[in-house]
Amino acid sequence: MRSCGADLLRCTRKGMRRDLVEALTAASNAPGTALANAALVIASIEYPRLDPEPYIAQLDGMGAAAADFIRKRTEETGDTSTLACVRALNSYLFQEQRFSGSERYEDPRNSCLNEVLDHRSGIPITLSLVYMEIARRAGLHIDGINFPGHFLVRCPDVGKRATSGLLIDPFHAGALLSEHDCRVLLQKHVGSEIAFSKSLLAPATRKEIIVRMLLNLKRIYVHMRSFPQARTVTELLVALTPSALSELRDRGLLAYHLNDVTGALRDLQTYLKLSSMSEMDKEAREEHDQIWEHVKTLRRRVAALN
Predict the structure, then answer these.
(1) Which residue has the higher pLDDT, 176 or 6?
(2) Which residue(s) pair with 166 in the sheet?
(3) Do 110 and 121 touch, CB atoms closer than 8 A?
(4) What confidence score (pLDDT) does residue 281 get?
(5) How does strand 152-155 pair with strand 121-122?
(6) What was the pLDDT predicted at 7?
(7) Where are the beta strands (DSSP E) in the chain?
(8) Is 149 in contact with 171 (CB distance < 8 Å)?
């Protein structure tokens, strides 16, 4: 017999996941391009009592200070070009504020905006998010770039192609990159798995950026075997990308690991039904068969309880 305490904990976690889904959906669909609110919702998985307001206020203050810094620098030099503004912003963020890249990719705290602002250190995507948010407040338009293996940003040329402009690497103190640099970066992070194409440098939507943050965090939590947190992340991914069968599958598998028989059966049976409607290669068929075995095990457990 299951304990009342276990049932209460499961209901509490379910309610928290529902609240997070609602909050992230609202932040993702809000007018404009702001990312900070969504990032702080994601950070609350690691920090359930996180108050986002002080961090939004901190970004607002830094944005105003950055605008003043850029104005003074351009007045001193007489150079108001996009390049001069970006260099001034880099000086403010990486010299004045001392933001820097952290190699601790497997630490979930480096994926949390509050931690990045507190400690001035983060992984490529969270540092890029800080860069974009402060730049936007300072009057500079910066796009995110979902570059494989290493998130980048761009300050676009007004009125030109979406893939033109200054390519910037916030993880390396705002280094300006050429196309050749990007080719080298791609080889370093993914090898020959992905061929370089200029399409890899296309601007990312807000939703694409949020999904990438969630995927990073899910991978970290699964690696740590922090399955409750991984399940919460997957819940958010299912809400944002409902057509992604892989997320439905993963939510079911995480429920299976957490002994949530009802949740696991619901998701895995739905996954099996939907995935069987498309062509499957050998690897997909083997995975399908494995999950079918999980479903049969779950059905036997349900039958034993009746």
Answers:
(1) 176
(2) 155
(3) yes
(4) 80
(5) unpaired
(6) 52
(7) 100-101, 121-122, 143-145, 152-155, 166-169, 175-177
(8) no
* pLDDT per position as a tens digit, 251-299: 999 999 999 999 999 999 999 999 887 787 888 788 888 888 888 888 8
3-state SS, one letter per residue, for 99-155: CEECCCCCCHHHHCHHHHHHHCEECHHHHHHHHHHHHHHCCCCCEEECCCCCCEEEE
3-state secondary structure of 101: strand
pLDDT for 129 equals 98
Can you tell me the mean pLDDT for 111-135?
97
Using CA atoms, how far residue 277 sits from 173, 202, 271, 273, in Å, is 48, 32, 10, 7
Give every CB contact of residue 12 below 8 A, 6+ residues apart in sequence.
none
User: Has residue 44 got a pLDDT over 70?
Assistant: yes
Q: Which residues, in sequence order, are bridge partners of residue 145?
A: 152, 203
Rounded Cα gap, residues 179 and 279, in angstroms: 37
Cα distance between the two ends of the chain: 11
pLDDT tens by residue, 202-255: 999 999 999 999 999 999 999 999 999 999 999 999 999 999 999 999 999 999
Listed residue (138, 139, 173) closest to 153, CA to CA: 173
243 token code pair: 């057509």
> Is 46:112 a contact under the CB 8 Å cutoff?
yes
Residue count of the chain? 306
Sign of the torsion formed by the C-alpha atoms of 64, 111, 116 and 187: negative
Cβ atoms within 10 Å, residue 47: 14
Give the Å distances, CA to CA, from 87 to 72, 79, 95, 160, 175: 13, 11, 11, 21, 9
Residue 18 has pLDDT above 50, yes or no: yes
For tokens 């730049």, name the residue: 135
